[in-house]
Amino acid sequence: MNGTKKIVTALVASAVALSLFAGCQQKTSPYLVVDGKEVAVPYVLKIGDEKISMEEYRYYYLNTKAQAEMYMGSDIWETVPEMADNLKATSESMIRQSRAIRKLAADNNVSLDDEDQKTIDERLASNKESAGGEEGYQEALTSMYLTEPLLREFIGDDILLTKTEEALYGPGGSEEITDQDVTDYILGNYVRAKHVLINKSETGDAAENAAAKQKAQNVLAQAKNGADFDELIKQYGQDPGTEVYPDGYVFTKGEMVEEFETAAFELAENGISDVVETTYGYHVLLRLPITDEYIAENKDTYRQSMMDEKITPLLEEVYDSLTVETWEKYDTITPETVK
């Protein structure tokens, strides 16, 4: 269950976004139709002692189905029959992830209180007002396979996850992440670098690439001789991102192309690289220290990243411990029968 928290958080976020359209009336038409007949579904899955309703399962199933068809075409279920099993497995996994959040919260004595319920009510009220009326709610409710009770649960899961992280890693938590922890995390895992990029030929022309490389060598010589690096960027640089990030890029491993990343991490602070070739072109890098000001401005974002990293293995452990049973007619659930 790699990336459990990120997946669940994404699902919660999408559900919260859909709350702009979620109405109060519930769907009364059938969710499962087999051979033209409505089928009553007492439950789809049992996770532990909890029975998972068709209403909830359908939300994940049909939204996942829609995404698959958007990327692979509506005939994917005929051309690649095993995709139907993958669709079920994905739906099961997402529901199981939500239960992992709830169990981890309960295991840490975290629950939704009256203030949390008030927060949920306020979010729903605000979203309903923004949606512009009941008719719009109902249309989107139908198109997105969402009901208001489900939406309440999704928002509740989001709150539970945040509260569990705070209970574990917030002030006074059993594994509190301090400001010094955040600083050490940033300095130990991130680098800051500016660069001058000379683009390669868009057509792959060898002569143009050779000229670009020679220009980069010229930039390198000037940088090594003490030229102002910002002036070199201004005069020669062809990366539009330098205008957005005039203080340089701050990044960790896996966020940049490999050659650029390797060069940046190998440099000492204030060191200048040799010419580095990537698919984009030829770079001359200057590694700079990460400033206290940057850390102060971004510590909350990095603290959240640390929380995400720490809570993921806990969620995985709980996820793996959950037992799942399926309804006796589970094989009747197919891309054609779920409505």
Automatic annotation (TrEMBL):
Its EC number is 5.2.1.8. Residues 1-22 form the signal peptide. InterPro entries: PPIase_dom_sf (IPR046357), PPIase_PpiC (IPR000297), PrsA_foldase (IPR050245), Trigger_fact/SurA_dom_sf (IPR027304). Residues 188-289 form the PpiC domain. Keywords: Isomerase, Rotamase, Signal. It comes from the Bacteria. It holds the Pfam family Rotamase_3. SUPFAM superfamilies: FKBP-like, Triger factor/SurA peptide-binding domain-like. It is an enzyme of class 5 (isomerase). One of its GO terms (molecular function) is peptidyl-prolyl cis-trans isomerase activity. This is Foldase protein PrsA 1. It comes from uncultured Anaerotruncus sp. The gene is prsA1.
